[in-house]
């Protein structure tokens, strides 16, 4: 069976108008080599408009890294509403990234509200879940993943996962150069899919599950070949065109 991988770049708080233009140029130049890959880039919100203009059509998909949990416009200084992101051409938005959970105090309830706020305007949320090293060492990885996923399932229901992506990102692997082994990634993904399947097997089978955490050109094939890994959420390596394209090439070979 052929697989359509989603390879997503989380640029985090990096980039400039000039640097982004150069990076997108390089991705556009090679994009045709990956007909079976959905390539997604998630620049900082202030860069969405310029990146969208440069991308033009849908050869490369656009996503945001965060959105407000508030759906209606109003007095929320500094916040960006989902509808604003959709208007700028975003199709996806990352919610619950571990950096937002750890640095900006986003708890499961906030993440669940952001997930719902994204879907309310037709954005596809990329729900990030993952355990810390301490949690893994204490043997509570599945309990943590179950709690993080469960908060969204309770708030939005299983049907919502027909229009959502989940990214398993072990916190200890993000930006550390230390990646989960394919066995660890597969086990976590199988657990997440199983949690969805308890409620709806069809939706569970079709929900894309991405792995994120120090994915690079040289470990991408091993991770992407796991049965329940449907793509990658790539941080550092998405800022270098050659590295990101090599990950796309690995996915294309496997698809
Ligand atoms: C991320 O930021 O989501 C991420 C996975 O980062 P990195 O690939 O750098 O570990």
Q: What is the structure about, briefly put?
A:
With 255 residues, the protein is of the alpha/beta class. It is 45% helix and 15% strand.
Strand order of the largest sheet: 1-2-3-4-5-6-7-8
Helix content: 40-55%
| Helix/sheet category | alpha/beta
**Topology, number of strands:** 8
The parts where pLDDT drops under 50 for at least 5 residues are none
Largest sheet: 8 strands, parallel, barrel
Oligomeric form: single chain
Outline the secondary-structure elements.
Layout: E1 5-10, H1 17-30, E2 37-42, H2 48-55, E3 61-64, H3 82-87, E4 92-95, H4 98-103, H5 108-120, E5 124-129, H6 133-137, H7 141-156, E6 165-168, H8 182-199, H9 201-206, E7 208-212, H10 217-224, E8 231-234, H11 241-254
Parallel strand pairs: 1-2, 1-8, 2-3, 3-4, 4-5, 5-6, 6-7, 7-8
Helix pairs in contact: 1-2, 1-11, 5-7, 7-8, 10-11
The chain binds phosphoenolpyruvate (PEP).
Phosphoenolpyruvate is lined by residues 10, 12, 169, 174-175, 212-215, 233-237.
């Amino acid at each position: 069976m052929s697989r359509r991988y989603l390879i997503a770049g989380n640029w985090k708080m990096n980039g400039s108008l000039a640097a982004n233009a150069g990076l997108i140029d390089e991705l556009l130049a090679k994009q045709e080599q990956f007909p079976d890959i959905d390539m997604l880039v998630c620049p900082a919100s202030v860069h969405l408009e310029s990146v969208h203009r440069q991308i033009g059509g849908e050869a490369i998909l656009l996503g945001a890294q965060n959105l407000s949990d508030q759906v209606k416009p109003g007095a929320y200084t500094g916040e960006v509403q989902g509808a604003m992101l959709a208007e700028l051409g975003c199709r996806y938005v990352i919610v619950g990234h571990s950096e937002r959970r750890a640095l900006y105090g986003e708890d499961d309830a906030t993440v669940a509200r952001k997930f719902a706020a994204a879907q309310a305007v037709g954005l596809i949320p990329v729900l990030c879940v993952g355990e810390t090293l301490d949690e893994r060492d204490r043997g509570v990885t599945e309990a943590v993943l179950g709690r993080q996923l469960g908060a969204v399932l309770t708030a939005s229901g299983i049907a919502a996962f027909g229009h959502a992506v989940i990214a398993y990102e072990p916190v200890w692997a993000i930006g550390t150069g230390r990646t989960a082994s394919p066995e660890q990634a597969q086990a976590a993904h199988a657990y997440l899919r199983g949690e969805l399947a308890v409620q709806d097997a069809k939706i569970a089978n079709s929900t894309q599950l991405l792995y994120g955490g120090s994915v690079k050109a040289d470990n991408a094939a091993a991770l992407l070949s796991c049965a329940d890994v449907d793509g990658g959420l790539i941080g550092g390596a998405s800022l270098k065109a050659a590295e990101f394209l090599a990950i796309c090439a690995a996915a294309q070979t496997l698809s």
